[in-house]
């Protein structure tokens, strides 16, 4: 499971894509070796001649639009992608190595935390590696049955995991741009400048323009602040936080709100949390990781000119595609149909709100769940046992299959973010 989480995270897969992109450039060049280059050709065509000048040193220049030096543009474009791939690799490894080392040091210094693992037969190294990899990849798995509830008093451990949640998901583009800027001050100045100024030409989804990166940080912090204030105002004296002191409550609430976006680790039983907070968490889980507030200027509001005739089949397909929210409603309705018997016999556990939370959590690849409690049964079952598994563990096989499809749909949602444009709500 650790290996699957390690290689299945968004950052790792995007890094593999960068390395494949480099090899593709070299492959194209090998196939087309010996062809002449027209300075007016596109960047992709220029890249075919990279190996023809292996000893040529590209001069430093300000922009990529210097058509009088196609070889320089091609070499700089290739070197920039190569530099970016190694920056992402370094970021990916360094953050997680520091996280594992920090958790091991914390466990060595605080015996109470290590005793929790010892009582459950979990080795410190296994816990450290598994938890950091899971948190950084936004999987939400923790090798304890109680998730992070058992560590709610260990504020130091929560402080270690909070940066892993943010750096591995919502703040990755902003941190990546910052690291490129820092490295560009000392090494690879031309490549760093090219990456920072030509994010569209590079074609790396996680490398955002300067304004977008800055507004992304402000948006993420704004959501965290809103969730923090809401959680504190409604749950400060609740049963889940009642056994903690003030400092521990602050850290625990911060940890909970940070995880509400994508990681899904929790320090409280979500079934006991106020419905208003659960609705807020549903909205947070639905939002894509790089959601940010971008002011719209006047030019963007003007209708664009028609850019040529599109194929009829393609236009029809686009008109039939629904929005992300529409698909979620469809999935929720289907699950309510498959679980209609349980909804009727056990309405408190199988409430529509709990089903919505489970579906949206699966869509956002978060992992939040309200769980299942025998105490909430209207008709108590004599053999019922409370277990620390997800609420979907009590669903029918049909409902579980639909939820699996929701997980895949959520992981691939970036390919359908522009769906539903044919629907006009006036």
UniProtKB/TrEMBL annotation:
One of its GO terms (cellular component) is plasma membrane. Keywords: Ion transport, Membrane, Transmembrane, Transmembrane helix, Transport. The keyword Transport applies. One of its GO terms (biological process) is metal ion transport. Pfam families: TrkH. It comes from the Eukaryota. It is found in: Membrane. The chain crosses the membrane at residues 83-110, 122-144, 156-183, 204-231, 273-296, 316-335. Signal peptide: none annotated. It is a multi-pass membrane protein. One of its GO terms (molecular function) is monoatomic cation transmembrane transporter activity. Its main location: membrane. InterPro entries: Cat_transpt, TrkH_K-transport. Belongs to the TrkH potassium transport family. HKT (TC 2.A.38.3) subfamily. This is Sodium transporter HKT1-like.
């Amino acid at each position: 499971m650790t290996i699957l989480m390690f290689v299945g995270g968004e950052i790792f897969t995007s890094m593999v894509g960068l390395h494949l992109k480099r090899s593709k450039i070299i492959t194209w060049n090998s196939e087309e070796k010996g062809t002449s280059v027209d300075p007016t050709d596109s960047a992709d065509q220029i890249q075919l001649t990279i190996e023809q000048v292996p000893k040529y040193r590209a001069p430093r220049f300000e922009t990529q639009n210097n058509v009088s030096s196609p070889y320089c543009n091609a070499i700089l474009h290739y070197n920039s992608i190569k530099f970016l791939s190694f920056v992402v690799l370094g970021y990916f490894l360094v953050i997680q190595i520091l996280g594992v080392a920090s958790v091991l040091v914390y466990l060595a210094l605080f015996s109470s935390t290590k005793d929790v693992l010892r009582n459950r037969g979990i080795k410190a190294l296994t816990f450290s590696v598994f938890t950091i990899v899971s948190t950084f990849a936004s999987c939400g798995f923790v090798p304890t049955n109680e998730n992070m509830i058992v560590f709610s008093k260990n504020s130091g451990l929560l402080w270690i995991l909070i940066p892993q949640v943010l750096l591995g998901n919502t703040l990755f583009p902003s941190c990546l741009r910052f690291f490129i800027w820092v490295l560009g001050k000392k090494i690879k100045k031309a490549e760093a400048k090219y990456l920072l100024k030509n994010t569209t030409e590079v074609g790396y989804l996680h490398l955002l323009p300067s304004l977008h990166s800055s507004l992304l940080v402000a948006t993420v912090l704004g959501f965290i602040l809103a969730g923090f204030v809401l959680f504190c105002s409604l749950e400060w004296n609740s049963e889940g936080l009642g056994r903690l002191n003030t400092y521990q409550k602050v850290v625990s609430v911060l940890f909970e709100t940070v995880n509400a976006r994508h990681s899904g680790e929790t320090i409280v039983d979500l079934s006991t949390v106020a419905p208003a907070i659960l609705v807020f968490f549903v909205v947070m889980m639905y939002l894509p990781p790089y959601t940010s507030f971008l002011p719209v200027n006047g030019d963007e509001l003007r209708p664009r000119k028609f850019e040529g005739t599109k194929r009829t089949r393609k236009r029809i397909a686009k008109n039939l595609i629904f929005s992300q929210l529409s698909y979620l409603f469809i999935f929720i309705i289907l699950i309510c149909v498959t679980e209609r018997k349980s909804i009727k016999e056990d309405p408190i556990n199988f409430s529509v709100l709990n089903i919505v939370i489970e579906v949206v959590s699966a869509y956002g690849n978060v992992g939040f769940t309200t769980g299942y409690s025998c105490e909430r049964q209207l008709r108590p079952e004599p053999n019922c046992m409370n277990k620390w598994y997800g609420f979907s563990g009590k669903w029918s096989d049909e409902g579980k299959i639909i939820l699996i499809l929701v997980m895949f749909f959520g992981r691939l949602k970036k390919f359908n973010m522009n769906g539903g444009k044919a629907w006009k709500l006036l």
